[in-house]
């Protein structure tokens, strides 16, 4: 069923059950991969808030969770090369295993910026987990990107945390622009 958000129409792309299953599978994998240390999960607000919440409930190993806030799209439907750094990460990550949790990697500029910034703080390791990836939009290779929920076409999506003009974040499924 099509939905309207502000001036645009969207149609279903990934339903809630499919997201739930995939998030569970990623959680199991993280429990295995990070069992040797107490990792710091770094959620990138706003878009990843539902993904982080659902993913973290699947984590059964000791871990910390903290947040940073970056913005790139500012209400439009295409990636801006300029990144707005709204809220810095407070927790000390020196010597820690860090997992960045993102909603979507599009051009890769935002996550590349964050990896660069956090690397300067001396973590033991940095890896990235993103719910979505647009492989054909990626402008630089991101070796740290180890966990991806779904690869999608180069199309604009909303729902499950992702917005269009700050709306649609509450949807439990992911929709693409018609
Ligand atoms: P990048 O820097 O990789 O081009 O874009 C990263 C950020 O842009 C994401 O964290 C997300 O906030 C936003 N973004 C990229 N693609 C989409 C999309 O299809 N829909 C929405 N709502 N945001 C997107
Ligand atoms: Mg994001
Ligand atoms: Mg946005």
Automatic annotation (TrEMBL):
Biological process according to GO: GMP salvage; guanine salvage; hypoxanthine metabolic process; IMP salvage; purine ribonucleoside salvage
Major location (coarse): cytoplasm
The keyword Transferase belongs to this UniProt entry's keyword annotation: yes
Any one Pfam family match given in the protein's UniProt record, by short name: Pribosyltran
SUPFAM superfamilies: PRTase-like
EC number of the protein: 2.4.2.8
InterPro entries named in the record: HGPRT, Hxn_phspho_trans, PRTase-like, PRTase_dom
Keyword match rRNA processing: no
Catalytic activity: GMP + diphosphate = guanine + 5-phospho-alpha-D-ribose 1-diphosphate; IMP + diphosphate = hypoxanthine + 5-phospho-alpha-D-ribose 1-diphosphate
Keyword set, alphabetical order: Cytoplasm, Glycosyltransferase, Magnesium, Metal-binding, Nucleotide-binding, Purine salvage, Transferase
Cellular component aspect of the GO annotation: cytosol
Location of the protein in the cell: Cytoplasm
Pathway in which this enzyme or protein is active: Purine metabolism; IMP biosynthesis via salvage pathway; IMP from hypoxanthine: step 1/1
GO-annotated molecular function: guanine phosphoribosyltransferase activity; hypoxanthine phosphoribosyltransferase activity; magnesium ion binding; nucleotide binding
Swiss-Prot/TrEMBL cofactor(s): Mg(2+)
Domain Phosphoribosyltransferase: from-to ranges: 18-165
Family per record: Belongs to the purine/pyrimidine phosphoribosyltransferase family.
Protein name: Hypoxanthine phosphoribosyltransferase
Name of encoding gene: hpt
């Amino acid at each position: 069923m099509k939905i309207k958000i502000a001036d645009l129409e969207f149609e279903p792309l990934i339903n809630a059950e499919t997201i739930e299953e995939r998030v569970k599978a990623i959680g199991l994998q993280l429990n295995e991969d990070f069992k040797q240390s107490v990792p710091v999960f770094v959620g990138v607000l706003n878009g990843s808030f539902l993904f982080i919440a659902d993913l973290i409930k699947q984590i059964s190993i000791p871990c910390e969770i903290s947040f940073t806030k970056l913005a790139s799209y500012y209400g439009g439907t295409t990636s801006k090369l300029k990144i707005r750094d709204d809220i810095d990460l407070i927790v000390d990550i020196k010597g820690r295993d860090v997992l960045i949790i993102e909603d979507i990697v599009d051009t890769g500029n935002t996550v590349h910026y964050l990896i660069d910034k956090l690397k300067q703080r001396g973590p033991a390791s940095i890896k990235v987990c993103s719910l979505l990836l647009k492989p054909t939009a990626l402008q630089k290779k991101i070796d740290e990107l180890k966990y991806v929920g779904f690869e999608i076409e180069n199309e604009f999506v909303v729902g499950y945390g992702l917005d269009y003009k700050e709306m649609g974040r509450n949807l439990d499924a992911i929709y693409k622009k018609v």
